[in-house]
Amino acid sequence: MWYPGPMLPGLLLLLALAAALGLTLLTLGLRGRQINNHPICRRCKFDLVGVYPGIERCPECGAELHTPRAIRPGARRRRRGVLVAAAAILLIGLGGGGAMGWALITGYNWYPHAPVALLETLARSASVQTQTGALNEIVARHAAGGVPDERLHRLAVEGLARQADAARPWAVGWGNAIEAAADTGLLSAEQLAGYLQRSIEFELDHAERVAPGEEVMVSVRFRPLRCGDNLKLVAIQSVTSLRIDGGPGELISVPRRSSFFINGPGTTSATSFPVTLDAPPGRHELVAVASADLTKVSGFVSPASPPATDTTVTAVLRRPFTILEGPFAGPVLVPDAGMASKIRGALSAGPLSITAEDESGVTLDGEVHGHGVPVNCAFEVLIRVDGLDYPWSMLVLSEGGAMSTGATGLIEAPVGRRVDLVFRASTQILRRHTKFESAWDGEIVIEDVPVVRSVVQDE
């Protein structure tokens, strides 16, 4: 779809001016030019030369000729050239306005009909949506052989410069053009490495108020932002250092590593681990050093066996926190029975899979999802079998946010074809895994979740 964005007021003004000019010319053309000074009946335009003023009524239509404005001086002839021009301008003004309105209402995609030169102009418009639409069309034409490599390479280089300017709004279409150029070998290894490095953002997250010597959960989040909407990466993230106020005391004895498969800018991954923040009361700063080995891939690749690394990006992350004088009551769970149905509607779970089974129990794999919950939630997720609850996973959701989490857990009981999933508010999870001031207190049950068997049970 074409998004005119900031150009829309200007286009509408031009079309309105064209329509006004067309109507003016239409009026002039229909009125015509005077070709003589004969008396003319105003009602039927009959030429009364030679008979007026000797008669009282028009011999053609019978109109009274001695009333005011009954006679018009001079016959007129329509201006055909002016009428042709009026029709053309009206077609542009009224037709163009109607076509634009129809396109905006129906979402018609004009880009395939635009010449490449116009698409390049639109790619540099003020609207990021227009930029993306035009660039995506250029990428599609390049894939079909309709745009030469040189043109795509020039746009990719321009996109790299735009990506490097952090103050400039980013249109994912530039990322798509850069990635298309990389996939066809038009970028150097250095250009690709720079693109991947600038596409990534790290974020340090932990509780903001901590009791002396309290163990808290620290997360280093990792997400692609200034990239194309189909960027696929294998990322091995490492947190190599964690210190309070940048001092000598290291809070982690070994680097914490996690492997992820990243699929587009909507993907967020995190390396999380508990640490004890032991420092004098007052304001402090947690300083982390994080890095990620990045490999661009064309499809899913297991992070367990990644290909050769394209580049590594490293960041020093800082986040303040306060150590209190004494014990911290911490965030609280707040009951609200009226929220239960809304929260239930925002939770879902896919089928669970039995991946192992022996005398110790059953290992269940699966995913739970939350989307658009009305309040903060910090849930322990349990599996209910024959009325007994078995701990399995956790799910933390911020108000209005979305999260999916995979889980694997051992259930020390026989499992049939269906189980119930219990989402139970947990103070421990609220304290250790969130920075919420409060979260909903209650319990949600998803009944009859299917269980499938992906392991063959020994006879």
Could you characterize the architecture of this molecule?
Helix content is 28%, strand content 35%. It is an alpha+beta fold and 459 residues long. It has three domains: 77 residues, no CATH class; 124 residues, Immunoglobulins (Immunoglobulin-like, Sandwich); 122 residues, Sandwich (Immunoglobulin-like), CATH 2.60.40. The strands form six sheets. Strands 14, 15, 16, 17, 18, 19, 20 and 22 form an eight-stranded mixed beta sheet that branches. A five-stranded mixed beta sheet has the order 6-12-11-8-9, with helices on one face. Helix 1 runs antiparallel to helix 2 and helix 5 crosses helix 6. It is elongated and about 120 Å long.
How are the SSEs placed, and which strands pair?
Blueprint (H helix, E strand, L loop, with lengths): L6 H25 L1 E2 L4 E3 L29 E3 L2 E2 L2 H27 L9 H8 L4 H16 L5 H16 L7 H12 L5 H10 L1 E6 L3 E2 L4 E10 L7 E13 L11 E8 L5 E8 L5 E15 L14 E13 L8 E4 L4 H7 E3 L2 E7 L2 E11 L5 E9 L2 E10 L4 E10 L6 E8 L1 H7 L4 E4 L1 E11 L6
Parallel strand pairs: 6-12, 13-21, 15-22
Antiparallel strand pairs: 1-4, 2-3, 5-7, 7-10, 8-9, 8-11, 11-12, 14-16, 15-16, 16-19, 17-18, 17-20, 20-22
Helix pairs in contact: 1-2, 3-4, 4-6, 5-6
Summarize the structure.
Helices cover 28% and strands 35% of the residues. By secondary structure, the chain is an alpha+beta fold.
Number of domains: 3
DSSP helix fraction: 25-40%
* Largest sheet composition: 8 strands, mixed
Any idea what the radius of gyration is? 36 Å
CATH H level, superfamily name of the largest domain: Immunoglobulins
Mean pLDDT: 86
